[in-house]
């Protein structure tokens, strides 16, 4: 619910801390797909310990 509220505001930067830590794998995949689509052209920062979640996104280290 919180993610939906944030995405409705169309922010330029999206910060996610342990976004899917308490979700099952199918729900996590659905949330990550939504986040990928919503973050096009935006800065996205994800903090996670989940290897699947980490590998779902292109990671760029500056």
Explain how this protein is built.
Helices cover 42% and strands 16% of the residues. It is α+β, with helices and mostly antiparallel strands and 62 residues long. Strand 1 (13-17), helix 2 (25-38) and strand 2 (43-47) form a beta-alpha-beta unit. The N and C termini lie far apart (31 Å).
Q: In terms of per-residue confidence, which ranges show pLDDT below 50 for 5 or more consecutive residues?
A: none
**SSE order, as H and E?**
HEHEH
Q: How much beta, percentage-wise?
A: 15-25%
CA distance, first residue to last residue: 31 Å
Work out the number of β strands.
2
Largest beta sheet: strand ordering: 1-2
User: What is the CA-based Rg, rounded?
Assistant: 11 Å
Can you tell me the overall shape?
globular
- Helix fraction by DSSP (H/I, runs of at least 4): 40-55%
Instruction: Give the mean pLDDT.
Output: 80
DSSP helical segment count: 3
Main sheet summary: 2 strands, parallel
> What structural class should be given to the helix and strand makeup?
alpha+beta
In short:
This protein is an alpha+beta fold and 62 residues long. The protein has helices at residues 2-8, 25-38, 51-55; strands spanning 13-17, 43-47.
């Amino acid at each position: 619910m919180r993610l939906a509220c944030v995405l409705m505001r169309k922010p330029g930067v999206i910060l996610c801390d342990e976004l899917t830590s308490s979700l099952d794998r199918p729900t996590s995949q659905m949330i990550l797909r939504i986040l990928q689509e919503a973050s096009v052209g935006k800065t996205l920062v994800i903090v996670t310990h989940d290897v699947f979640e980490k590998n779902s996104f292109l990671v760029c280290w500056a």
